[in-house]
């Protein structure tokens, strides 16, 4: 019978209004306040932030070559990565949208290819592997369709271990970490209000990701972004225990607690028995602003490495880069081949 380890909200600190949280996703939105003076000016600042984090067209970077030197291709530097991981247990963390699947207009159709699924299946046989996504855990699990993985949904606020006991665990244990359970009713309430408020804006889509709600504006005309921001603010201003963060063409409504993808990474490493270990090598691959929390954890600890999936230069705590999901698959295939060669498989 599976054992369950539970973490509740009572073990997680709340982020106060004067809390000096400097995590990447929070820092990027310090001025992205829900409540503040001057409604018009505030909405303009929201739209400016939406535009900065979600450009409608690729930017041209004069420092692209410099950025590539600082964040070289993980494929080109594969041997260097192997050397860094020598003698250590590799643990894999993978974002979903934009990493394992392409970014698409309809978030309900962000399907991964059969080839990618087969690659991730082989990867999980070689290394402990987790999917860390802003999606609802059940939804991302239904997309991936692999029971041998760890799944961290809702930006790490909903973590579940493999249904099949992994060979690298001494005990057959199903992990459960849900630090925001008390917020479930209010998230559902806000989700319904957002549905009603945004239905007049063509292209807007609201997604209930269980412990957070997402307002997608990828298909919203840019001249309607201010209308969308106004409607979102009109709902959230009445919920002081919720905060707004941002990803690629999406606004995320989340509980104000000290929990993110970086915390999820730390929880999973500790649950696997690698807390404060020097012989573990986590690799985190992701494409979004919310993945920066995990990249920063690895950089600060000087442990493992982060790989940003992006075709264009952007500020990041990742050490290496890959351009698109196809390159992610190539990188994972190389890791699998390397592991199987070492094991004589």
From TrEMBL:
UniProt xrefs under InterPro entries: HAD-SF_hydro_IIB, OTSB-like, Trehalose_PPase
Enzyme class: hydrolase
One record GO biological process: trehalose biosynthetic process
Any one GO molecular-function label of the UniProt entry: trehalose-phosphatase activity
Role of this protein: Removes the phosphate from trehalose 6-phosphate to produce free trehalose. Trehalose accumulation in plant may improve abiotic stress tolerance.
EC number: 3.1.3.12
Family: Belongs to the trehalose phosphatase family.
Keywords tagged on the record: Hydrolase, Stress response
Alphabetical list of CDD domains matching this protein: HAD_TPP
Protein name: Trehalose 6-phosphate phosphatase
Required cofactor(s): a divalent metal cation
Pathway: Glycan biosynthesis; trehalose biosynthesis
Reactions the enzyme catalyzes: alpha,alpha-trehalose 6-phosphate + H2O = alpha,alpha-trehalose + phosphate
